[in-house]
Amino acid sequence: MEGEINNFLLVWLTVVVSLCYCHEVSKFFPAVTKARFLAILPVSFLFLCLPLNLTSIHLGGTTSFFISWLSNFKLVLFAFNKGPLSSDPHVPLSRFIPLACFPIKFKSRESAKKRGRSILNYVIKLAILVLLVRLYYFKDLLHPKIILFFYCLHIYFMLEMILGLVSSTANALLRIELEPPFDEPYLSTSLQDFWGRRWNLMVTNIMNPTVYQPVRSFSARFLARKWAPIPAVLATFFVSGLMHELVFYNIGRQKPSGEVTAFFLLHGLSLSVEIGIKKMVNGRFTVPGIVSGPIAVAYVIYTSFWLFFPPFLRTKAEIKGCTESLALWEFLKTRRLVSPTELSCPFKFQK
User: Fold this and answer.
1) Residue 202 belongs to what domain range?
2) In b/e form, how buried is each residue of 57-83, taking b as 16+ CB within 10 angstroms?
3) Domain assignment present for 247
4) For the chain, how long is the longest CA-to-CA vector?
5) Model confidence at 74: pLDDT above 60
6) Which of 14, 39, 258, 274 reaches 20 to 30 Å from 230, CA-CA?
7) Does 306 lie in the same domain as 284?
8) Per the confidence metrics, is the pTM higher than 0.85?
9) How far apart are CA 121 and CA 185, in angstroms?
10) Which sign does the torsion angle of CA 215, 218, 224, 225 carry?
C-alpha cells in the first residue's frame, strides 16, 4: 500500500508540473496556432499513460477518470483557446490547476438556487452507502440481480460522495460556488433528462464542447437543422464509451471487450430515437413524467445489468476495492492514525 501511495503522489506531482507548463505555454502562444497545439499535445499523451503507474481501483480509477479523460479534454479545448481553462485575462495558476485536474465548474446564481444541496442530503446518501456495504455480508443469500441493483446504487452514491468532496474542497480553497456533480438522476423524466441534465454533469459539460458541438456543426452542413443533433448524440456516446473502456482498463488491466462501448452506443441510439420522436410529434403528444421517468431509469438499470456491469465485475472490482480498503486501514494502523480495531470484508477471498 505504501508503494502505491508513493506512486500516487509522484503521478500527481507530475500532473501539477505538466499543468504549470501548459499554463506558461499559453503566454508564449496567446493566439491559437499549430505550435500551441503541438506544445500541449505531449502532455495529453502523458496524461493517458500516467494512470498506468497505479494499480488500485480507488487511486488508479479515479486518476484515470480525472486526468486521462476530463483533464485531457479540457487541455484539447485549451489548445484552441476554448473551454474552462481559457479566459481573458488568463486564468491564474492557482485556479488553472484545480480546474484542469478536477470535475468542477462555476455555478450561476440560477443553478445555485435550483440545485442547492443540504448536508442532510449527503448524510442520508452516506448512510445508504454504509448500509449497502453491510448488505454485502449477505451476498450469498440474495439474488444476483438484487446484488447488481445494489451495485448501481453503490456506484451512484460513491461517485456522488467523491465528486461532492472534490467540489467542496475546491469551494473551500478557491472560495467559489460550484455546481453539484449530479442532480438527483432517479427523478429523471426521460433518457434526455437523465443523460443531459442529471447524470454526471461534469462529463456532460466537457463532452458538449469537445464532441457534441463540433459534430453537430459539421452535421448541419449535410442534414436539416433539426436532425443535425442525432449524429452528434451518437458521436458523444461513442466517445464516452471509449473513455469508459480506458478507465475500466486502468482498473482491471483486462483487454477491453467492447461491452461498455456497446452500452453507451445503445443509449446514444435510444436517446436519438427519443429525440426524433419528440421532434416528429412536436409537442402534440407527451407522456407524463411520472410514467416516462421510471421507465427511463429502469431502462438504464436493466441495460447496465446486461452490458455495463459484466466487464466491471470481471475485473473483480468489488473484491479489489474491499482489499484496498483493508490495506489502507492496516497502513493507517501501523502509523497509529486510526485505532487498531478489527475490520472484516463482506467478500470471500480466494488465495
Assistant:
1) 189-315
2) bbbbbbbbbbbbbbbbbbbbbbbebeb
3) yes
4) 67
5) yes
6) 258
7) yes
8) no
9) 14
10) positive
